[in-house]
Amino acid sequence: MDVMYSSTRNASEKYTASKAILQGLAPDGGLFVPSFIPKFDKTLDELMNLNYQDTAYEVMKLLLSDFTEEELRYCINHAYDDKFDTDVIAPLCYADGAYYLELFHGKTIAFKDMALSILPYLMTTAAKKNDLKEKIIILTATSGDTGKAALAGFADVEGTGIVVFFPKDGVSAVQKKQMVTQKGKNVKVIGIHGNFDDAQTGVKKMFGDQALRDELKKGGYVFSSANSINIGRLVPQIAYYVYAYTNLARSGKINNGDEINVVVPTGNFGNILAAYYAKNMGLPIKKLICASNDNKVLFDFFESGTYDKNREFILTTSPSMDILISSNLERLIYHIAGNDPEKNASLMKSLSSDGKYTITDDMKANLSSFESGYATEAQTASKIKSLYENTGYIIDTHTAVAGYVYDEYKKKTGDDAVTVIASTASPFKFSRSVMSAIDSKYDSQEDFALIDELSKLANVKVPGAVEEIRNAEVIHNTVCEKEDMAKEVKAFLNI
Q: Which terminal residue of the chain, N or C, has fewer Cβ atoms less than 10 Å from its own Cβ?
């Protein structure tokens, strides 16, 4: 039976996977969810010896069921190629009691590459399948990594354009320079006076503005999204959890069928939701450990059952997690409510009007596979320093949040199950924070001097993604108020 998609807020209209990918966000502001979560149709023994590309196909064919095998393999093979600096695509590195799943070997050295390398192929294939005549305009808000990965994926892709909004003062120096130096005839990068939640809210507002969408259509354009609100972003992420598991089994670290834990540094909730889908598809995951930074809205939710965004927004050294409205959590809320769109819509209405909602006891009982924790700035830095001093392995700030949370979980529970930590970005992307954590003597050095020093300490070559921006020209200087985001999009499109 084919998997269809409907909104988390209204199940009356069904969409194929390709139509859901093209649309990005449901017309009612909800997110697209599958009609059911399919089980793997291959055993773990059969999956164990597959390479990354074939693993991705076996996962994605089940959820993107209106794509033919030829279409899907075309997308996968063009996405996971020499854009990655390792044939393994997503290698595991063992350090100090856990396996770090390195998701940063793509073009922009962050985990977003794992899905945004394939999304342009899925999107353009979906456009052909559905005879779409309009030019697709990708509208994206970023807390730092999605923006560059989306820009790299969609730059000069025929039939598309892309506009990325980022918080002007809320990303790292490398993240910002990666975005504002992006080349391409079809790209626009805009800083906003505000935080990521402001950018994300502005993008969602544009998706929900029917008058704006009508105006675009007259001009020959249609909106879609590259954020993890797009199901075409979420589905490819499931594959790397399956691949990590089969990699452990293949190397004899676990036996097929053994349960593992997965720890994910979490902001917008897409990455850990992909692991939740993998578990529901049949991957033996024992605990999904949600790691937060000082913006611990998710930690508080898992502890109390109340999601409350009414709090101070804190800028941290792990800026991709500086989020108070975790969009993808809505998909989880829908599922734990028994796939009930009315219940979910009611809770999302409360979030919109009051900034908070509380789930029922029955819903909370459905979160039993989740654990949560958070790391302060000092604890994040201490994890980077101790891991480096004990093993020589250097991790970025977001991965350090997850590493610290896992250490605390293990102390508290004594759970010694094999554990995979999602390592979501290269330390080179956050070199200032990483080097300061290792030794305060680096505080006075400029950014690229720090990068060179980090290369020596880690005994790792400076990634090409960083080298190419060292002396790159700044192309995008536009900065706007959050209220003027739609105006900037229209100016870019000349409408």
A: N
